[in-house]
Design brief:
Chains A, B: This is Ectoine hydroxylase. Chains A, B: InterPro entries: Phytyl_CoA_dOase-like. Chains A, B: GO terms for molecular function: 2-oxoglutarate-dependent dioxygenase activity; iron ion binding. The structure is a homodimer. Chain A is of the alpha+beta class. The first copy, chain A, has a single domain (18-68, 77-267), classed as Sandwich (Jelly Rolls), CATH 2.60.120.620. Chain A is built from 8 helices and 13 strands. Chain A has a 7-stranded antiparallel beta sheet. In chain A, strand 3 (77-79) and strand 4 form a beta hairpin. Chain A binds chain B through residues 132-133, 137, 139-140, 170-171, 173, 176, 213, 216-217, 220-221, 225, 227, 245, 247-248, 250-253, and chain B through 132-133, 137, 139-140, 170-171, 173, 176, 213, 216-217, 220-221, 225, 227, 245, 247-248, 250-253.
């Protein structure tokens, strides 16, 4: 934990505050209509950033990694509680040349540099796969709140790219973003338990690092919501502090995506702001 | 249970069949474009079937009935597991003059008569209320499969009206229908447990009376899906055998609707086709 004044203080006791974000959303200059839209809404979408062949190749990597004997027991491979099917593969840009090249093909890094106005590095990467019928909802949250509290990320000078490997439709639990919510920082209540990531990675109903229902309602009334649908091969890039969630999925349509977080080299991690120890590098690289 | 050949046999052992429905979907003549659409897709939608004032009056009935001392302990009032908040009120057309008049205002009964080609009676009615953040998903099923198996409804000569008391949007778990699926009858596997309705009314993940994931996938590939959104005051009428589900809701927007099932007087209930005893009248009136 760190001493001193923290404008993004969180995991507080008592009544949480909703604070204005003092840092910009787009740090780069000159701006473009696409970046102005990003600054306004906290996200942007591009179609066809990777080819169908690349999509197929990335999906095939799940099958390959799933049975790779060298990765048996590796904590970066999150498997089904029952069975050996893979749900998330962290460090995917390290573990898979195919996915690393797909990220390169997507143009996400150049876009991240434009938005963050500096060189960037990968803070976290993973490939997520959920078969049909099994996608639980994921509750409203700001990623930055967690990265600040648990990883020591100083400011919200980071962006996430979600590259779709399956189509995202309104019915199979797409990303939902409150557009504009990145301009506010919502304090969360409660002390971070030790080794909290071991629980938070597997639950879909986190208790820590999420705003209260009253606050979500207030934010909803201010900003409304956009459902981010799109074909396989499309990309959504979103601000690290935008309030977002994803719905459940009871359809047969699976959901898979590559998720890459780019952090500014001006924003390297320090000690956690509201947790006892740093998290493992596969969750938060230290640049 | 009943002996003899049953074209809608269900709750079977072993491999379930998908059978053609031999009964029509629209029994009335002459037809209209609206009814032809219903026959094709298994549902129709009308906007503004009840006024805003009626919507408000119906919502107020929840608060009234919730605290009515005469209804304390009444099994028709399904409350929260914790607390006393009301989730569903069965027999709502009997318990509330306001809601009975709203149903009358909606024109649902006349429409049901047109579709079913006969006089009709109310098989079941209820008012459903789910606050924001708390609506679980409800898995794919055909209502008729349950009514046939557990209530002794001979044929799918019944329709359901869902009258929206809140807006239904893609993001707050609307009704999802597989259009055209009413033309097939999907057998379900497994014996009906005694008093199964006591469990099936409170769970969102029923084990009995639902098709397998393989069958849902096959149906999905044949029919696709429509998400039924609409403003408060709109009505969806759907066939008793159409395959449908509803998604979960993690938004602050509550969901409330009046649900009324009309059955043809030519289709009165007999003994259950696949259960030991009949269910209570508030779930299945016997005409």
């Amino acid at each position: 934990m760190r001493a001193g004044i923290d404008q993004y203080a969180t995991r507080v006791e008592g009544q949480p505050e909703i604070r204005d974000r003092t840092d910009p959303c787009v740090w780069g200059l000159p701006s473009t209509p696409e970046l102005e839209g990003f600054a306004e809404r906290g996200y942007l979408q591009r179609d066809g950033v990777i080819s169908s062949a690349t999509v197929e190749a990335c999906l095939a990597e799940i099958d390959r990694i799933q049975v790779d004997p060298r990765l048996k027991g590796d904590e970066r491979i999150i498997r089904e509680e029952r069975g050996t099917a893979v749900r998330s593969i962290f460090d995917i840009d390290v573990l898979s040349t195919v996915v690393r090249e797909a990220i390169s093909e997507s143009g996400a890094e150049e876009l991240a540099r434009q938005i963050l106005g500096s060189e960037v590095y990968i803070h976290q990467s993973r490939l997520n796969y959920k078969p049909g019928f099994q996608g639980g909802a994921f509750y409203w949250h700001s990623d930055f709140e967690t990265w600040h509290a648990e990883d020591g990320m100083p400011t919200p000078r980071a962006v996430s790219a979600s590259i779709a490997l399956t189509r995202n439709e309104a019915y199979n639990g797409p990303l939902m973003i409150m557009p504009g919510s990145q301009r506010l920082f919502v304090q969360c209540v409660g002390k971070t338990p030790a080794n909290y990531h071991r629980r938070s990675l597997v639950t879909t109903t986190p208790q820590i690092g999420v705003p209260s229902e009253d606050v979500v309602t207030e934010m909803w009334n201010s900003f409304g919501v956009d459902m981010l649908t799109g074909p396989a091969g499309s990309m959504t890039m979103f601000d690290s502090n935008v309030m977002h969630a994803s719905g459940g999925n009871i359809t047969p349509i699976p959901r898979a995506n590559i998720f890459v977080v780019f952090n500014s080299v001006q924003n390297r991690l320090g000690q956690p702001f509201a947790a006892g120890a740093t998290r493992p590098p596969y969750l938060a690289r230290r640049g």
